[in-house]
């Protein structure tokens, strides 16, 4: 499951630089998470870094984007391979 930034986001800029997959970027009004890049930090850390650091706890799991740990690991491997060849 990818993560989702809700409209409680205060644009504090803490999450974006901590995302190891560059999945977080500024949207029209608040930060957004690209579910195609979000691995919930699987492959990098034991817990999602954006969730751990968010001061307002506005980054829940995205119920519309369900993935198993195995799927997240496969996505991590794809993203890592693409980053190393690109």
From TrEMBL:
GO cellular component terms given for this protein: cytoplasm
InterPro entries: 4Fe4S_Fe-S-bd, 4Fe4S_Fe_S_CS, PSI_iron-sulfur_center, YfhL-like
Entry GO MF terms: 4 iron, 4 sulfur cluster binding; metal ion binding
SUPFAM superfamilies: 4Fe-4S ferredoxins
Keyword Nucleotidyltransferase recorded: no
Keywords: 4Fe-4S, Electron transport, Iron, Iron-sulfur, Metal-binding, Repeat, Transport
UniProt xrefs under Pfam families: Fer4_7
Domain called 4Fe-4S ferredoxin-type: residue spans: 1-29
Keyword Metal-binding (UniProt): yes
Record's protein name: YfhL family 4Fe-4S dicluster ferredoxin
Organism lineage: Bacteria, Pseudomonadati, Pseudomonadota, Betaproteobacteria, Burkholderiales
């Amino acid at each position: 499951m990818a993560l989702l930034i809700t409209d409680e986001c205060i644009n504090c800029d803490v999450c974006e630089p901590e995302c190891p997959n560059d999945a977080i970027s500024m949207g029209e009004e608040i930060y957004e998470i690209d579910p195609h890049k979000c691995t919930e930090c699987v492959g990098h850390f034991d817990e999602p870094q954006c969730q751990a650091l968010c001061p307002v706890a506005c980054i829940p799991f995205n119920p519309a984007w369900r993935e198993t740990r195995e799927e997240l690991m496969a996505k991590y491997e794809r993203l890592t391979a693409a980053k190393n060849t690109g």
